[in-house]
Amino acid sequence: MATNTNQKLAVLIDADNAQASVIQELLAEVSRYGTATIKRAYGDWTTTNLKSWKEVLHTMAIQPIQQFAYTSGKNATDSALIIDAMDVLHADAVDGFCLVSSDSDFTRLATRIREAGLVVYGFGQRKTPEPFVAACDKFIYTEILRSEPGETKPGQEPVAELPKLKPMLLNALNATVREDGWTTLSALGSQITRSNPSFDARNYGVSKLGELIRLQAAYLEVKEVKSGEGDSVQTHLHVRRRAALPQKVA
To answer: What is the domain range of residue 211?
Structure first.
């Protein structure tokens, strides 16, 4: 997915449903897509539940937004975040939003922001319901941002199964392939993200898409092609002859 690092972004955090332990890495990830001109965390700061967040708010320059829980069982925090998001949207103050939550209640908010032509980056755990993931332009699982893996014990929370890699790559290649049978790595990456917002090479244990592609040598061939003047090169790939390219991979 092509990104404009000059984008102004509003980072809105559902502190009731997000982890303070990864906030430094999360904001570093946000900086890959633009500048966080608005950083707000929503919750009832009078309770002890958000103690871990209180310790990072000032160091990360995040503005805490107080929202009392007026009624048991109703999430007033979600409503406050959504109202503020719409105010920011109509003020034309930013180019996009970073919604930090694993809660599907923000699915419609993400859809509404995109309808207005702004980009939406979602951040949440792998337990995040698929509708919210799909509603974002790109969704980053916070597990890949942890500096210390294993923070969450196995079985402690449900984990979404990652999409099968080979069908996803072949479908994206099929959609971008040229008449000569080749496509570029950048075109492939953009197509995968459009079809699978949660795709990230780091989900599969590597840092870059190019590295992930090179591990698929059994059915993909890669070559480097000089691009323009100088030493710049562009990565091209195609399906090896013995691996037929399907019309659609299930």
So the answer is: 165-239
